[in-house]
Known about the structure:
The chain is mainly α. It has one domain: Proton glutamate symport protein (Orthogonal Bundle), CATH 1.10.3860. Helices cover 72% and strands 0% of the residues. 46% of the residues are buried. Mean pLDDT is 81; it is low at 1-6, 351-356 and 431-449.
Amino acid sequence: MTHASATPKPRKPWYQILYIQVLISIAIAIVFGHFWPETAIEMKPLGDTFIKLIKMVIALVIFCTVVSGIAGMNDLKKVGRVGGKALLYFEVVSTLALAIGMVIGNVLTPGAGFNAEPATLDTDAVNVYAGKAAEQSVTEFLMNIVPKTVVDAFAQGDILPVVLISVLFGYVLSHLGDRAKPIRDVIEAGSHLVFGAINAIMRLAPIGAFGAMAFTIGKYGVSSLGPLAFLIGTFYLTSIIFVLGVLGLIAWWTGFSIIKFLAYIKEEILIVLGTSSSDSALPSLMEKLTNAGVAKPVVGLVVPTGYVFNTDGSSIYMTLAALFVAQATNADLSLSQQLAIFGVAMLTSKGASGVTGASFIALVGTLSVVPAIPVAGMALILGIDRFMSEARALVNMIGNGVAAIVMAKWEGELDEARLQAALAGSPLADTEAVDDLDVIATPELASKI
């Protein structure tokens, strides 16, 4: 099979390229936050507003993508099969992330020599988080997947209820056949409207990244990283090892380069880095995966669900931070106690999803059931948690992008020519990724060869 070559688009001036604008904004924000911290803290609403704008349309993005994708599928059995395989994949990869965090924590021992005395630590803020951790049990989390009403799912903005409703509506539309064509056409047109709105909102990404980064540097200060720089460095190193090692191996096995994939989603990486929120890149990541040849139903099912169940960055953080607190407070853990942390973290890393500060809250909940580690030790990392949340969000997003491509490959729902073209920087237009027979049979397309 051969494909027509893509018509090259005229290059934008460098100052109009989104990722360069975001990169410049982050650099300015760091300088601004360092020299004018009080004013920089007041920039927080810029970052919060941008994230709210993105979250405002996430439910619609998921609904339009999943419904239109499933409604157009010939084999509805694939929907359940993709969902089941995705959950199994999530569990395996996130377990590997937990294991890597634990291994690196034992090898590099970032908390060794800290000699913190739990009785002298300020635990008030930790107690607030511990209270939040107790507010939502795993059972309540599962019950909340089913919304009270259809409207309530969109009003609350939680991802899993929207996915559930979208799968249900897509399934029904697929069974209705031609009778549902007007509705399918409306939803398809609606998806173009929603993604058009996303593209407009993304133009504000440099402003949002500036506000969020300026606040972080202004409030916490670069100097605050000093005593805990080794922990932060260890966490970032572990994250890089996981992305290039584990996800890189999975990508190679699937047939694409993790480095090229990272370059393809560079805008999303910088936006997440600037805002410390993976939600800010969810809609544009879904759009890019679809443009790269991943089938709509796979993108719609795997990516939103992965944001809840495939939290690789959060998993690394939980085991590594737990060992840091133990080492910093001189709590000597046996192998069985470390395995207990590992087992509990496998559950709590999922159960606290959807709660603000989920990773920190889940870690407090994990340490609460391992008496050997004083929960008060969490006060040591509370101040620098914001700096580690950037890496957590980045790894979570990258992991879910890779997962979508893997699932599409497994199910034969991946246009590999389109994927390779996108990763090479020359994405194919919709009319270009067709068989030679289709091109020959259509005179208008044949004239393009």
